[in-house]
Amino acid sequence: MFYDISDKYLIMKSLYSHYFFLLIIIAFISKPSHSQKVSDSIKIVNKTAGYEYSYQDKKISFTAVGRILDNNETAYPHYITAYNFRATSNILVIAGGSIVVIGSIIAIARVNENNEQANTFTGVIIGLPLMALSIPTHYIAKHNMKKAIEIYNQDLSLSTYYKVKTELGLTSNGIGFIVHF
């Protein structure tokens, strides 16, 4: 029996598509998977000025926690809220402190020029409320960060509890998928 060239092309194309599909299945099954462990949880130590974070027994920064929480859809919004309130708190403390210091320097300079007591407390009147406003925003940031890490650690412990492992192996009927729960 003679085959036409186009028939050989179709047969080869069909074989290549089967081989390609088989390679994709083997690559999917044999790829090394990284499952997170409970040791991957983020630990929090309460400090006066905020929290100290550790991940896999290493100290990490606030932004490094954000990179870890980036893939967690439920914890990441709390991190973003904490980040925004933390930035607001820092801006209020820096602005308020700067205004108090500058106002005090101006008041001291006026005392030295005129040799009389200056009654300029404008810097203190403006700066102290700004610094006072930073206190609740700081605690809101701490609360949201703690909540984000608690959610992340809770999701982590749930995901490690239900492990499903798939592999390609020999079964009684030949080659097949083996699913371990």
Could you describe the 3D structure shown?
By secondary structure, this protein is α+β, with helices and mostly antiparallel strands. It is 62% helix and 16% strand. The chain is built from four helices and five strands; from the N terminus they run αβββαααββ. The protein has helices at residues 5-30, 62-69, 76-114, 122-161; strands at 42-47, 50-55, 58-60, 165-171, 174-180. The strands form two sheets. It has a three-stranded antiparallel sheet. The longest helix is centred in the C-terminal third of the chain and has 40 residues, at 122-161. The two termini are 52 Å apart.
User: What percent of the residues sit in helical stretches (DSSP H or I)?
Assistant: 55-70%
Strand order of the largest sheet: 1-2-3
What overall geometry do the principal axes of the alpha carbons give? elongated
Write down the Rg.
Answer: 31 Å
Averaged pLDDT: 77
Order of helices and strands: HEEEHHHEE
- What is the SS-derived class? alpha+beta
The biggest beta sheet is recorded as:
3 strands, antiparallel
Give a count of the beta strands, DSSP E runs of length 2 or more: 5
Low-confidence stretches: 31-35
Q: How many separate helices?
A: 4
Subunit organisation of the chains: single chain
Terminal CA distance: 52 Å
The proportion of strand residues reads 15-25%
